[in-house]
Design a protein that fits this description.
Belongs to the GADD45 family. By secondary structure, the chain is of the alpha/beta class. 47% of the residues lie in helices and 16% in strands. It has five helices and five strands; from the N terminus they run H-E-H-E-H-E-H-E-H-E. A five-stranded mixed sheet has the order 1-4-2-3-5, with helices on both faces. Helix 3 links the parallel strand 2 and strand 3.
């Protein structure tokens, strides 16, 4: 489990550096609608206070269904402040951004061979084998 958290941290940092990270529920939904084949990985994030947000939970359900239908691995993170510390504010505006959904995309047609992405894909596959379809990952300190 801790290895998956470290791999997710590495993947988020690497994807952001390469410009392959899309943050935000609406931005992610738009991207999935326009170019689903380019999405390599999905992260859903919510804190305890978000659990009562019905609209957000509906979005999560739709995103999860889309990811399952398109063979996109998906994980949950339950610590938005840690996630914000890794991803940071929007580069364009410097404003905090919606981190409830983050997509990692392939930067080109050849695909992106990132060791952290491969570790997470394996973690998700193992989780599905024990009927945990959207595993929760804890980011390292």
């Amino acid at each position: 489990m801790q290895g998956a958290g470290k791999a997710l941290h590495e993947l988020l940092v690497s994807a952001q550096r390469r410009g392959c990270l899309t943050a935000g529920v609406y931005e992610s939904a738009k991207l999935m609608n326009v170019d689903p084949d380019n999405v390599a990985f999905c992260v859903l994030a919510a804190d305890e206070e978000d659990e009562g947000d019905i609209a957000l939970q509906i979005h999560f359900t739709l995103i999860q269904a889309f990811c399952c239908e398109n063979d996109i691995d998906i994980v949950r993170v339950n610590d938005l402040p840690k996630l914000a510390a890794v991803v940071g504010p929007s580069e364009e505006s410097g404003e905090p951004r919606d981190l409830h959904c983050i997509l990692i995309t392939n930067p080109n047609e050849d695909g992106w061979k990132d060791p952290a992405l491969e570790k997470l894909n394996l973690f998700c596959e193992e989780s599905r084998n024990i009927n945990e379809w959207v595993p929760t990952i804890t980011l390292p300190e």
